[in-house]
UniProtKB/TrEMBL annotation:
Organism name: Pseudonocardia broussonetiae
Domain of life (superkingdom): Bacteria
Name assigned to this protein: DUF222 domain-containing protein
Regions of compositional bias (Pro residues) in chain numbering: 471-483
UniProt feature, compositional bias: Low complexity: 284-303
Length: 504
């Protein structure tokens, strides 16, 4: 791919070689880059790609994909270099004592953001955020910055790591970083965010429980104005409550039957309005056999609304056995949502509307099922969805609850069993069967996807094993016995001033 002859003909490179006679020949430089496999992002690689991609029509499909990926890595390399320069600039602009007292350690001169903002034509706020992130990367998250400079992760992933660890002290932030970086290169940003949420809970379980308890106090319902005569009704709820409410709306919507012309989203929206405004919800198109007679008017009324699977648990929560019994504080998983703190998982594990799945800490897997019929039974469907968590396309985050079960080896050549079933969203289900695409399921649960250009990508199974190297769990303190109301009154009046407000 490297055309050194063409490169040496350029005036700019000729001047560079004349100014630096000790440089090795260009062909040796490029050979060294290629010898290591995929060239590391650098100015040399940018120069080569500039020449090689000048006429995209001369590249085949695989070379186009490789060039696109290499240019993305160069962009990451350049952004990381900029972060190092910004961090050095911030160190050269220390804050005066008053700014340090107001902003805390790591503060810079109040005018430093203005210098960067003018140079980059961005807002003062944006410049300040860049300076703060650059210092955070160089001082607390150096491995993240190294991965960025090597082109293994892009700017969106770097920002995700910084955001997820901003409330943690440097030592715990570094532990989170070390957990997620090995897989971050192969993940989408959404997958990395999910891994970060789990790692933060594992590294700081007590803090995660405290933050959830604090966040739960902020639950609310808000109405927002939209365009075209529409409005949004938005609710901030605890994750189990929100997921259960959505699942119940979905069951009611599906219970309306296939004859209902509305889409599933419109059905859910209309049912939500009916339920919250006290209207009688009924089937939109009831048959004569389902119709009932209104006692007051004598007219036929629609049959009552019936959800599909009314007795089935609304939500599954996956809890390691050691966490369920209180021996440790492992992250737990709300199927269809993601990691949740251990205290929340223990609170909901015994609730009647939840299905509890306890995992084996050694294998990190659930039990298997086997079938010889085409359509999987409900128990096998639930198992596969809890096992896969998401669509098994390498980068897709569509929930398995909203996906379709697919035979990797088509039935009847392949059995209807867990080792031959995966979850795929409708888009990637169709993609799998498109010309040039293929998927192979490995014995360990990994899926190998091959694209029409011959590039291969791996989808790893969800791993329920406990997080390693958890901090020791402090012993739980016994809750104090409740104080009788009469004793509270006596204690309050005996404090001194009877005009002070009571402590409740």
């Amino acid at each position: 791919m490297f055309d050194t002859a063409a490169l040496e003909e350029t005036d700019e490179v000729s001047r560079m070689l004349a100014d630096a006679p000790d440089w090795p020949p260009l062909d040796e430089v490029f050979d060294a880059l290629v010898a290591a496999g995929r060239p590391a992002p650098s100015g040399w690689l940018a120069l080569e790609l500039d020449l090689a991609s000048a006429d995209p029509g001369e590249l085949d499909d695989a070379e186009l994909v490789d060039a696109v990926a290499d240019l993305d890595r160069i962009a990451s390399w350049a952004a990381a270099r900029q972060s190092r320069l910004l961090a050095e600039f911030a160190r050269r602009r220390p804050a005066d004592p008053r700014d340090v007292a107001a902003q805390g350690p790591g503060a810079v001169s109040r005018w430093a953001p203005d210098e960067i903002a003018l140079a980059l034509s961005v807002s003062r706020l944006a410049a300040g955020q860049r300076l703060a992130q650059a210092r955070r990367l160089t001082e607390a998250l150096p491995a993240t910055l190294d991965a960025h400079e090597a082109g293994r992760i892009d700017a969106t992933k770097v920002r995700a790591i910084c955001d997820a660890t901003q409330h943690l002290p440097d030592d715990r932030a570094a532990r989170v970083q070390d957990r997620v970086l090995p897989a971050a290169e192969r993940q989408s940003r959404a997958q990395l965010v999910a891994a970060l949420r789990r790692a933060v809970i594992a590294v700081d379980p007590d803090g995660a429980n405290d933050r959830h308890a604090k966040a739960r106090l902020d639950r609310r319902v808000v109405v927002g104005a939209e365009t075209e005569g529409m409005a949004s009704l938005w609710a901030l709820l605890a994750a189990p409550d929100a997921l259960a409410a959505h699942q119940w709306l979905t069951r009611l919507a599906r219970g309306l039957g296939s004859e209902d012309p509305r889409g599933i989203d419109a059905r859910r929206a209309d049912l939500l309005v009916d339920l919250l405004t006290g209207r009688v919800t009924s089937r939109a198109a009831a048959t004569d056999a389902d119709a009932t007679t209104d006692a007051d008017t004598g007219s036929a009324a629609a049959a009552p609304l019936r959800p599909v699977d009314p007795g089935k648990p609304l939500v599954q929560v996956v809890v390691p056995h050691s966490t369920l019994v209180g021996a440790d504080e492992q992250p737990c998983d709300l199927v269809g949502y993601g990691p949740i703190p251990s205290d929340l998982a223990r609170q909901i594990a015994a609730d009647a509307v939840w299905k509890r799945l306890v995992t084996d800490p050694l294998s990190g897997a659930l039990l298997d099922h086997g079938r010889t019929t085409y359509r999987p039974p409900a128990a096998l469907t639930d198992f596969v969805r809890a096992r896969d968590v998401h669509c098994r396309s390498p980068l897709c985050r569509r929930r398995a609850l909203d996906s379709e079960l697919d035979h990797t080896v088509p039935f009847p050549l392949g059995p209807t069993a867990a080792h031959n079933l995966t979850d795929g969203c409708p888009l990637h289900h169709r993609e799998k069967h498109s010309p040039g695409w293929s998927v192979v399921q490995q014995p360990d649960g990994r899926l190998t996807w091959t694209t029409p250009t011959g590039h291969r990508y791996t989808s790893d199974p969800f791993d329920y094993r406990p997080e390693p190297d958890l901090p020791p769990r402090p012993p739980r303190q016994a809750r104090p016995a409740p104080v009788p109301r009469r004793q509270v009154d006596l204690d309050w009046t005996s404090r001194g001033d009877p005009h002070d407000p009571p402590p409740f």
